[in-house]
Structure formats: structure tokens, C-alpha cells
Design goal:
single chain; mainly alpha; Arc Repressor Mutant, subunit A; 2 domains; two-stranded antiparallel sheet; 6 helices
Length: 120
């Protein structure tokens, strides 16, 4: 039996941003609201799913602070949270540098092998 406190901890834990962007529908929503602020109904028109499913995706994206919402009259508009996307990009940059270094090393190795075969 789990202590009651552990259940509460799981209920209030913040969602992981990388789990949020792992879903293709949420990535598509991000792409849509990156171009312009949109209402949930306008977003839902781009998908072959229910309005409720889109609302669930928007809730997850909002919890992860990838999108924000603003009330304008009777409508709610969702837009991309640029600063959060920049933080993701900064985190990825460290790995991008590693990959580029490894690709450069592979290019050098292939050039060496090609030169050795040519010299034979």
C-alpha cells in the first residue's frame, strides 16, 4: 500500500516538456500557434479528432508552459511561449555540438579511407 502523500505528489507533479512535444498532435498544435494565436475551435479544425481531445492537448501544452492563453472577449486564444521554446533549444544545443563534432570526425575518417584506397 502506498502512503497517501505519494499519490498527492504524483497528482501535482509538473508534466515533462519533452513528453509533451513527443506527441505529433501537440507538435502540430505548436506549429499552428507559432504562426498566429488561435482559438481551440480554430485549432481543432486542423485535426481529425474531437474538440475535447484538442483541449486535452492544449491543457498539457499549457501546463508545460509551451503555450499561453489569453481571453479576448468571449474567446480564448492560444499562442506559442517563445521563451520556453528557446530554453528547449538551448538544452538541445549542447547535443547539437556533440553531433556536429562526431560528424566532422566521421567525415575526416571517410576522407582518409578514400585517400588510402586511391593511393593503392
Amino acid at each position: 500500500m502506498q502512503p497517501f502523500g505519494c499519490i498527492i505528489c504524483f497528482a501535482i507533479m509538473k508534466r515533462d516538456v519533452f513528453q509533451a512535444i513527443a506527441d505529433p498532435t501537440r507538435r502540430a498544435i505548436i506549429a499552428l500557434v507559432a504562426l498566429q494565436a488561435m482559438t481551440p475551435n480554430a485549432i481543432a479544425e486542423h485535426f481529425d479528432t474531437t474538440r475535447q481531445a484538442v483541449s486535452k492537448h492544449l491543457r498539457i501544452l499549457t501546463e508545460c508552459e509551451l503555450v499561453t492563453h489569453e481571453q479576448k472577449g468571449r474567446e480564448i486564444y492560444y499562442s506559442l511561449e517563445i521563451n520556453k521554446m528557446k530554453k528547449i533549444d538551448e538544452w538541445l544545443e549542447q547535443y547539437r555540438k556533440i553531433w556536429e563534432t562526431r560528424f566532422d570526425q566521421l567525415d575526416d575518417l571517410l576522407a582518409t579511407i578514400k585517400k588510402q584506397e586511391k593511393d593503392k
